[in-house]
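To: structure subgroup
Subject: Chain for Friday's discussion

All,

I'm putting the inputs and outputs inline so they're searchable in the archive.
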Amino acid sequence: MILLYILLILGLTKGFDFGLATSATQVEGGWLEDNKAMTVWDNLGHTLGYVRDHTNADIADDSYHRYHEDFAIMKEYGIKHYRLSIPWTRIIPRAVAGSPVNYKAVEYYRRLLKTMKEQGLVPYVNIFHNDLPAILVINGTGLSDPEFPDHFAYYANVCFENFGDLVPYWFTFDEPWCQSVYDNLRVYDANTKPYIMGHNILLAHGKAVKIYREKYQSKYKGKIGLNLNIEMMWPFTDKNEDIEAARRGLIFQIDWFADPIFKGDYPSEMKSKLGGRLPRFTEEEKVMLKGSIDFFACNHYMSYLVQDGGHDENITYFDDVNTTIKYKEEWKRTDMGWPIVPEGMYYILRYIYEKWVKDHSMEIWITENGIAIHEPTLESAVNDKERINYMQTYLSYLDKARAEGIPVTKYFSWSLLDNFEWTSGLSKKFGLVRVDYERKEKRTPKSSLLWYSQLINH
């Protein structure tokens, strides 16, 4: 363990940035303050039985009122890079293109970003992190609405215009695959809607990037991209059908979004399998999308084995992929039930590098990686050795990729704080800082934060 730690220090800290990540819905609270409108998750948090522990994000970590405290913790521990999100429903409550800007919220986030700068923190801002305005679903079809890209582009432009001087790094969307596949609001069109939603997200991303590059990038010298969630998949056996199933799984998760961004169109395998259910890009849209990122940002948590078959009803996205997930018995699990497979970090980075990044002068950033641990007491939370071991081993495989020339330059641990973990509510603990929800969201740094600080600031 000591040798691994020394190797990490020698291998990673040179020319490498470490950070922490959160998202607005998961930490802010202040759910209807300062003219904020409802998000889909504001509604779901108040839907009986939807969140498993019967909590919601109304208060969450109360970071909306306590960001100074959060920033002070990061400064004390030498964390300089912080990924956060700005909620659409605070900036433009009515959400649609052309609707009024809530300048009270603009002033709030300018104060927040200026405070970050004063504290020596570098902001990395997600424009959209799973916080769809509820009004877009009430008055339309949300992400699958044909007008969604224009609504988002309008919102993105407002963000660039008002915060561009304070934000050097932007992400348009967090995990578009999850946004497209795990939306459960209109299940009756589940064999077409994921692809329509993914298509709209890509168009919205392309429009926002075009606006940023044409109006703001030369002025502010910032960079822009999006965060893809990436999972490593290996064939369950050496049979050709399982090898093909693992390949198909990767294509339907990563290539689905990466190919349009690098090549201007969807993977041929998806077009062949889905036919008319997969939307088509116009030639103008292909040009807009191709090259629409300045870095390859990705979130990585899981790896697993893939067996061919198991979904053949032709009803959902998962029937199209038609695979069954398998796990090795020796793989340990997180409190989310996710397998802990550190070597997956190396192999998925190789996949990304070989398929897209190698032929482009582009950095790869890991913008989320972390572990949920069962921490029922303050003592168990503070002595989170399991999290330290997780970070050490995953970072060691990231370092292995770097040693082989794969240009990984940033790593963000999820998360700064224990937070509202969507359908799991407040029960799953990802934070390097404990939040005690029984004691007015009291913050307590964990051992993992000290370890992370020592790694960064050795």
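Points worth raising on Friday:
The longest strand covers residues 122-128.
DSSP finds 19 helices and 13 strands in the chain.

D.
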